[in-house]
Specification:
Radius of gyration: 16 Å
Number of helices: 4
Order of helices and strands: EEEEEEEEEHHHH
Strand content: 25-35%
Largest sheet: 6 strands, antiparallel
CATH class of the largest domain: Mainly Beta
Shape: globular
Number of domains: 2
Helix content: 25-40%
CATH architecture of the largest domain: Sandwich
Structural class: alpha+beta
CATH topology of the largest domain: Jelly Rolls
CATH superfamily of the largest domain: Jelly Rolls
Distance between the termini: 15 Å
């Protein structure tokens, strides 16, 4: 794939197909038995997942009822639906993911891959730096189920402020520019 970026920690790959700020479209390839994303929800981001090949397992809403999407199938996740995705099978899964609004999410994805490339990500793929992780969570509008929204917002606001003062936020944005 032209412009493909490989994550050496998780083994997945992405390519940005289009980007306008309001919307970003990615092509992803998850390796066999990839764990994908943890269970989360967004307050202001809508994502559409469209499988090109393989099988993409997803939680959409009820965590006890996973669904399996195959080539030609898609699903749109609107806020604040709980969701996660992974590759349950022995073959890679290729899918498109359209995110709206996309500007901050694009920065998140670019920095996510660059952290891994530079050895700054843990084995789970998350930044080794707590303050950089908080910036990433903020950019992705990532919210943890079961933790009160007000508390998440308060903690995130305080920690992003510290990240800004420490230079961690600027570092994430610099990393995102390196994958351009």
């Amino acid at each position: 794939m032209n412009g493909q970026i490989l994550n050496p920690v998780t083994g997945d790959a992405m390519r940005i197909l289009r980007s306008s700020g309001d919307l970003v479209e990615f092509a992803f390839t998850l390796p066999p038995a990839s764990t994908g994303s943890p269970l989360h929800f967004h307050r202001g981001i809508t994502e559409t997942f469209a499988v090109q090949s393989g099988t993409l397992a997803m939680i959409h809403g009820d965590p006890s009822m996973p669904i399996h999407l195959t080539a030609g199938q898609s699903i749109t996740v609107t806020p604040p639906a709980l969701h996660r995705f992974w590759n349950p099978g022995p073959e890679p899964v290729e899918f498109l993911c359209t995110v709206s609004p996309g500007a901050d999410f694009e920065v998140f994805m670019r920095a996510h891959y660059q952290l891994a490339i530079q050895g700054l990500a843990s084995p789970s793929g998350m930044p080794k730096s707590l303050l950089e992780a908080v910036v990433m969570i903020h950019l992705a509008d990532f919210n943890v189920p079961g933790l009160p929204g007000g508390l998440q917002h308060l903690l995130r606001t305080a920690l992003v402020g510290l990240a800004r003062l420490s230079g961690a936020e600027a570092h994430i944005h610099q990393l995102a520019q390196q994958t351009s």
